């Protein structure tokens, strides 16, 4: 039996990953840039065990059906194939989120699984190797190997596609992200299916790709200059452009709900009142607001008029992946 355990934090992209050029290897169409956060993380243990006759995936103590297990078993198959392991595995994942509001993330989940497998099989991987490996589980997971800001360099092969840390000289500790959990009701289209449909059918997709280099340059410049407004503006514009591509898909779709639009408008209003803050969204209706730590309380105060405290979740910059011993103490 081989066992390993790891903890990884989720990350939110400021410059989004949206579209693959290789579905099998998970090579992205464009570079992306994210902030790893402290408030949401996953702890995963894995045990490759000769007594198992199939993989088992437990999430928060509950055994999962094959639909939920798909990314996990695909990843375990990759591990078995790459490292000549012939055993099935039991995967035990715990999502640490401030509420049960569906904020589970494949970024933290698959990064933690990659770390746990590396630990179990004694692979002695560098962060770069681990980032490459996590990428094969879920693209965004490759950025969760690192704390603070990181950039996923798209590369052109399995070897050359991985994330690396961006040194912000501690500026990340002055930032916060406020999650606004809005009522869902929208039919779920996973990020994987959504980006595939967009790449294959959206007439707006080429415009998205054309804008990436400039957005990335601006974001990296803003980080180097510690220029919050510059970073916020490009974050908001890039997120809107990503969501714009879904409207040009066939059939068209959107992740926005009426409540998401309400939050976007409130953010614009709050900004007009002199408090700098900027929104971004992923493959779901929740809105994330980038704000300086010093303005977080004021921002929450404004929004408290419209949303309950359970709907407003604060996060700060978080650390990179940690490999744990099976008892839970840190190993590296
Ligand atoms: C909108 O990493 O979940 O959150 O690689 O297919 O597993 P797969 O997709 P995933 O996509 C994340 C998309 C996004 C933007 C981002 O995180 O960059």
Automatic annotation (TrEMBL):
Residue ranges annotated for the Mvd1 C-terminal domain, each copy included: 178-314
Annotated Diphosphomevalonate decarboxylase-like N-terminal domain residues: 8-163
Enzyme Commission designation: 4.1.1.33
Keywords: ATP-binding, Lipid biosynthesis, Lipid metabolism, Lyase, Nucleotide-binding
Annotated Pfam families: MDD_C, MVD-like_N
InterPro entries for this protein: GHMP_kinase_C_sf, Mev_decarb, Mev_diP_decarb, MVD-like_N, Mvd1_C, Ribosomal_Su5_D2-typ_SF, Ribsml_uS5_D2-typ_fold_subgr
Coiled-coil regions listed in the entry: none
UniProt superkingdom: Bacteria
Annotated protein name in UniProt: diphosphomevalonate decarboxylase
Organism annotation: Candidatus Enterococcus dunnyi
């Amino acid at each position: 039996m081989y066992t390993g355990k790891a903890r990884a934090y989720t990350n939110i992209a400021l410059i989004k990953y949206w579209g693959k050029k290789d579905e099998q290897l998970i090579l992205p169409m464009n570079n992306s840039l994210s902030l790893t956060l402290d408030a949401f993380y996953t702890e995963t243990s894995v045990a490759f065990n000769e007594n198992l006759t199939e993989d088992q995936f437990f999430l928060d103590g509950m055994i999962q059906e094959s639909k939920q297990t798909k990314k996990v078993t695909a990843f375990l198959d990759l591990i078995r194939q790459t490292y000549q392991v012939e055993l099935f595995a039991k995967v035990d994942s715990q999502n640490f989120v401030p509420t049960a509001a569906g904020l589970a993330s494949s970024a933290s989940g698959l990064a933690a699984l990659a770390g746990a497998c590396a630990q179990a099989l004694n692979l002695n991987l560098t962060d770069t190797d681990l980032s490459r490996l996590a990428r094969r589980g879920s693209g965004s997971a490759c950025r969760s190997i690192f704390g603070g800001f990181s950039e996923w360099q798209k590369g052109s092969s399995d070897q050359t596609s991985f994330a690396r840390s961006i040194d912000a000289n501690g500026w990340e500790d002055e930032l916060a992200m406020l999650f606004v959990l809005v009522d869902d009701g929208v039919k779920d289209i996973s990020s994987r299916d959504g980006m595939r449909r967009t790449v294959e059918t959206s007439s707006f997709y080429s415009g998205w790709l054309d804008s990436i280099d400039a957005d990335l340059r601006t974001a990296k410049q803003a980080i180097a200059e510690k220029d919050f407004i510059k970073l916020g503006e490009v974050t908001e514009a890039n997120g809107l452009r990503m969501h714009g591509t879904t409207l040009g898909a066939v059939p068209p779709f959107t992740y926005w709900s009426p409540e998401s639009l309400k939050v976007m408008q409130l953010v614009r209003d709050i900004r007009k009142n002199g408090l700098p803050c900027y929104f971004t969204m992923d493959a779901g209706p929740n809105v994330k607001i980038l704000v300086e730590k010093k303005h977080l309380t004021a921002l929450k105060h404004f929004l408290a008029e419209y949303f309950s405290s359970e709907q407003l979740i604060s996060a700060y910059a978080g650390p990179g992946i940690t490999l744990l011993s099976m008892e839970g103490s840190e190993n590296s």
